[in-house]
Design brief:
heterodimer; A: alpha+beta; 3-stranded antiparallel sheet; 2 helices; 5 strands; B: mainly beta; Jelly Rolls; 4-stranded antiparallel sheet; 0% helix
Amino acid sequence: MKAIFKIEEYLPKTTQIVVRFARLHAPEPIEKYHAVAVDYSRLDCYDSESFVKSLMREVGNYQVKKYEDKESIINESETISGKLDLSSLVGRTIECKVENDRKEILKMRRVEL
Amino acid sequence: MSVKSYLKRCEEFSICSQVGDRAGLVFVEPAVDRMTLYQIAVKGGGRLSTIFNSDFEVGNANGVNFASMKHYMGKTTIFESHEPFLIYGFNTLNKNQDWDGKLIKESFEGNDKSWLICFDGRPVINGIELARMDYAKLENKHYNVDIKDGLVGVFTKL
């Protein structure tokens, strides 16, 4: 899943930013989602990439998931458990989780000194 | 979040990274995957032990930020964070290939069996400003180092 964020305010005196988060494919414009204040002194501000990753880890992932849970459901679904009977699943819509636990590639750059 | 892991295989070694946003996160590394020779803590820290063992070591970015992990090779380990953390590991590609590693803070004489890795900061080496996770193969020559806020390791094949 891809997400987006929009910084509405930058408050250096209190080391805060006011940010809105949404899914990239959200059904509403990002301005329709609540803005939250984030203390950026807790984030990894080493460069843009580390900032984005730490912002999402610290606040964004939770916010996006929270909004997603509140959005209306178009597809009625059900959960399944226990013994598997594939033939009985044909035509039913089953709820499941999208997980991304695999190891990601660490971005490195070779330089000549 | 759980502990997020990253890995990059370079020419003669690999670098792994674990990152987490709070205390109490646990990361178990099975013996078969354990190839880490040195651990570098850039932010935060925690404690590390072989699994089912009450003895543990504490490492963190403000204290023991560079440590040999050779005694954990081939053993299943468990890490528990004490605070939000960002940790890197320098790994051999072959358990029979040993490396010597150290942090550098001053100018030094390089050799062609060594690699330099910038783990944090923006140090200037031979006039070139490095960024986090830049790396270079060294040569048999002098390297001028302005370490600034940098955390830089040099690893030599033994």
